[in-house]
Amino acid sequence: MTSSTLTGHLNAAKGAVKETVGSATGNHSLHAKGVAEKAEGHAQVNAAKAGNHVDAAGDKTAGNIKKNVGNALGNERMQTEGGATEAKGHVKSHLTTH
Predict the structure, then answer these.
(1) CA-to-CA distance for 30 and 24, rounded, in angstroms?
(2) How many angstroms from the chain centroid is the CA of residue 21?
(3) Potential cystine with 11: which of 30, 41, 82, 88 (Cβ 3.0-4.6 Å)?
(4) How many other C-beta atoms can be found within 10 angstroms of the C-beta atom of residue 66?
(5) What tens digit of pLDDT does each residue of 21-80 get?
(6) Transmembrane stretches, by residue range (predicted)?
């Protein structure tokens, strides 16, 4: 979990508490602030996840290209480095979706 994702979850949780307390006490202002803060937290989480997906896709693509160029040139080091970068992208993708 990235710091952006964690921050989003914390903001959503704080908003949910404010929303609940506002509802329980009849404080409409606190309730509204809680609803807004919770929504902002969820938006932060979603933005962080989208960024992680893009980063993972970039690693997979760049690694695959480097691996294939290394293969075409007969450069084992380039193939290995490309394979490692591609694998890193797959791991990031797996972690982002689970």
Answers:
(1) 10
(2) 30
(3) 41
(4) 20
(5) 999 999 999 999 999 999 999 999 999 889 888 999 999 999 999 999 999 999 999 999
(6) none
